[in-house]
Amino acid sequence: MKPRSPKKTKSSIKSKTKEKEDSLLPFQPLPLFFPHPRFLNRKSKSFFLFLNILILLQCSSLQEKPKEVYYNNSVTTEAVVQTKIEELQNSGIESLSYMYLLGDGKVQSGILGGKRRDSIQRFKIGSITKLFTGIALLQLQEKGKLKLDDPVSKFLPEIKEMQKTKPDLREITIRDILTHQSGLPSDLASGFFLSPETSDADILESFRSLPKKLGGMERKEPNKTHSYSNFGFGLLGTVIERTSGMRIETYFQKEIFARAGMKHSTLLEFHEGSELVQGYQGIFWKTKTSRPLIRDLTAGSLSTTGEDMGLFMKSFFLSKKGEGLLSRESFAEFHRTQKGPTSNFQMKLGLPVLLQEMVGDGKTVWLSGHSGSLPPYFADLVYDPETETASFLAGNTLGLATAAIKPTNKEILDIIYEYKTGSAMEFPPLSERKKQNGLDGFEGLYVSPFGIHEVKPGNPPKIEMMGFDFDLVERDNRFGTNLRLFFGLLPIKDKTLDSLRVEFETWEGERIFTLYSTEAPKGSWGFGLFFQPDHKLPDLSYFTTYHTKDPYSLIPRVELIKDKRGFPVTIVTYSLGGMENTVTLPCTMESSTTLRILGYGRNLGEKIELKTVDGKPRLVYSGIEFLGD
Q1: Which of 253-262, 479-488, 568-577 has the lowest mean pLDDT?
Q2: Second label for 314, Cα 20 to 30 Å away, from 49, 114, 202, 335?
Q3: Quick one: how far is CA 124 from the chain centroid?
């Protein structure tokens, strides 16, 4: 079938003459791509999850470096960038919004594809919303309304009602939440997704109900580990409302959107003069999806256009002169490496951008950015504050092509950076390690945000990930992986995959392993924690599958089973935009009716409660009461 030619709107046709608009990583919700669930068993779903992580890791370096000379050549640069955007949209994305800045203050933006020509169409940008939330809090700090190191309880006294996993936990600060190290739950799944028919007024009511739910929740130790938290950023929206005296949409419109000249952006669903672009899913045939509505507005609900994103970045960069959205000092603080938990290792965070270390002309370049996934929408923003270059891509179709948005966006910024500086950006080499990492004492079971792993002795030793065994071979005084996928039928020899490294070490007295590469800093995927199975089991009546009655639930079902090795595990199913993903996590018994999920990181360490009502089992997790079969 011949590829469909990209269809350009008026804004894309005029993009070379008009000024227009703007755009991590593994710690945030990744775009995950699967065939239809009915064609997959649990193992194959897990395999596709892991394969997609590898795709995101490797795609940006699979192609050879272009031979074109970009330095000060705007014609060649723009032509190549435009071609890459068009190829991405043609690969299976129904509509693609884009923006890039060449470092000259002019915004190039547009939209490709789509069927509407009579309206301005917005794309949801998911967790990129968090950058706007961080800017709002820094603005309020500048006005003396708050300080980032203030305890959150000063503005949210409800947080004092939370249960604590330890008796003497220090207070949570605003900065803790901005850097995802607060110890708050990663998500409150109960009520996270709302009915597509929910009105803006009801969305706001649901958003403002978040603090009321704190009394029945539990918090862990702050600054212990990184755990990406949409729930925390939802709470920060209430802090903004209470300290500014404005409603959240009013604040964003007045203090961010209007000041940047953005006319078609909103946290809500409806905005005069523009409409939300229709979402689609599918690989070969595209099916319309219902619009995803979330309660946690300031965590991921913002929708915008490419032009508006360019105006946002242009105004944001003016902050370096004290003339933009922030003061000089706040702009520097936004991009300053924040002190994080020791378990972050090489991962660096700003407020709340991910900072990625690159090398250009022998000098360190710190790129900033964030991705946003709210299926079927996916968006990616990456920029260099020093050269004031940026690239932003947003798509509206859940499918295999969406996996290429993030690496394509990075490719585009690489080209723009070379145009601006004459230097090519490269990933820094892996840090030197003088002694080979040993496996003595590290064989056994581990848990990470990706599930259960087992390190097995042998020649070579193996590590189980997503239900598949991968060889561990010695490389660079570490372990590397010989990846043979599809049960050994397909050997993978790509140099980027070959750079994947596994390290075993002791962290705070506990045995762990980490995964990383030249392109993914150590700590960005969390870590696997060694655990000894607890063979205590709840009453057999609780081993069943549990469902929620909520048709829009983020977690539609949870299964409690006995692992083949004899300990209890919970299988949590996440539903995102018609796509399902499961993760299997080990548990330990805290009482006859209470389980604790093991591990550190996103959605780990959470409590599960069991009870019986009218003779039937029920399970309570993440604020949802599930009914047993």
Answers
A1: 479-488
A2: 114
A3: 14
User: What burial class does residue 19 get, using C-beta atoms within 10 Å of its C-beta: 0-12 exposed, 13-18 middle, 19+ buried?
Assistant: middle
* Residues 464-488 pLDDT 10s: 987 888 889 888 889 988 655 444 4
Nearest to 502 by CA among 485, 532, 522: 522
Per-position DSSP letters for 262-295, written without gaps between them = --S-BSSS-BTTBEEPPEEE-SSS-EEEPPPEES
For residue 551, whether the previous peptide bond is cis, meaning omega lies within 30 degrees of 0, is no
304 SS3 class: strand
User: What CA–CA distance (Å, rounded) separates 292 from 372?
Assistant: 13
The answer for residues whose C-beta is within 8 angstroms of residue 165's C-beta and 6 or more apart is 218, 219, 220, 221, 605
| Four-residue CA torsion sign, 267, 271, 273, 274 | positive
- Asked if residue 337 lies in contact with residue 348, where contact means CB atoms within 8 angstroms, the answer is yes
Structure-block tokens of residue 492:
């993978």
Q: Which amino acid is at 172?
A: I
At a CB cut-off of 8 Å and minimum separation 6, what does 16 contact?
Answer: 78, 108
Q: Report d(CA 84, CA 408) in Å as an integer.
A: 7
Q: Do 244 and 298 meet the contact criterion of CB atoms below 8 Å apart?
A: no
Residues 334-387: tens digit of each pLDDT: 999 999 999 999 999 999 999 999 999 999 999 999 999 999 999 999 999 999
Give all strands (DSSP E) within 313-448, no chain letters: 348-349, 354-360, 363-374, 377-384, 389-395, 397-398, 425-426, 444-448
In the block, tokens 């960005």 appear at 524
DSSP 429: P
491 vs 390, residue with greater confidence? 390
**Model pLDDT, residue 220:** 96
Identify the CA nearest to 16 among candidates 114, 113, 99: 99
Query: Would the pTM of this model clear 0.85, i.e. be above it?
Result: yes
208 SS3 class = helix
- Smallest Cα–Cα separation from 88: which of 494, 377, 414, 412? 412
